[in-house]
């Protein structure tokens, strides 16, 4: 029995680049068998057309595969040429450049690294500032809130004035009430003293009359 890997490899070998060549071949064989066993001329002609269509698809797929194969060969040749050029350029570079040039290149790379670190640090600071700014409302929203607070403060000021006016009125009313109570108390005291004087006088008159 074949393993799953062997089955996959066999299918890839039969199917080419996975474009369905094995399916087309199977379809062609089935069409040929049906064409051989066709009972009528119309059915045979239909199977014949199907076989031609399948053959055209197979030829097209084969042509495409050949084109891809040729293209891959040219790409491999191009890559080999590029590789040789790179090797030659590298050898030439190491021959023509001295140790001083290498140190200069290293120094330039260090400068670029420092610059990259500064850029990264600045970006991190910008990101941190952006996050802080995002937590605060924008200018338009802040002005709207300030305007709403101003209106609310003005409303509270009017309420405070009304309360103070009411307190002042109640204070005056309470003062009048205290004055009235004081006068009433004074009147009651005077009436009480007058009653005591009249009772004392009557008592005295009764005593004189008995004598």
TrEMBL record:
Region described as Disordered: 190-211
Localization, UniProt: Nucleus
One GO CC term, this protein: THO complex part of transcription export complex
Record's keyword terms, sorted: Coiled coil, Nucleus
Gene Ontology BP terms: mRNA export from nucleus; mRNA processing
Claim: rRNA processing is one of the keywords in the record: no
Function text: Component of the THO subcomplex of the TREX complex which is thought to couple mRNA transcription, processing and nuclear export, and which specifically associates with spliced mRNA and not with unspliced pre-mRNA. Required for efficient export of polyadenylated RNA. Plays a key structural role in the oligomerization of the THO-DDX39B complex.
Protein name: THOC7 protein
Taxonomic lineage from the root: Eukaryota, Metazoa, Chordata, Craniata, Vertebrata
């Amino acid at each position: 029995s074949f393993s799953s890997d062997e089955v996959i490899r066999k299918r890839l070998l039969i199917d080419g680049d996975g474009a369905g060549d094995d399916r087309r071949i199977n379809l062609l064989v089935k069409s040929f068998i049906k064409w051989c066993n066709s009972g009528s001329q119309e059915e045979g002609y239909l199977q014949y057309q199907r076989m031609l269509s399948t053959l055209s698809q197979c030829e097209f797929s084969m042509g495409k595969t050949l084109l891809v194969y040729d293209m891959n060969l040219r790409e491999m040749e191009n890559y080999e040429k590029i590789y040789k050029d790179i090797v030659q350029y590298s050898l030439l570079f190491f021959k023509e450049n001295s140790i001083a040039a290498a140190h200069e290149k290293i120094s330039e790379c260090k400068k670029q690294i420092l610059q990259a670190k500064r850029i990264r640090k600045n970006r991190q600071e910008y990101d941190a500032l952006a996050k802080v700014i995002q937590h605060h409302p924008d200018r338009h929203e802040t002005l709207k809130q300030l305007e709403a607070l101003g209106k609310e403060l003005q409303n509270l000021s009017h309420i405070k004035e009304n309360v103070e006016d009411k307190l002042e009125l109640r204070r005056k009313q309470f003062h009048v009430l205290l004055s009235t109570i004081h006068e009433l108390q004074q009147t009651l005291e005077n009436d009480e003293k007058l009653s005591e004087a009249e009772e004392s006088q009557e008592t005295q008159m009764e005593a004189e009359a008995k004598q």
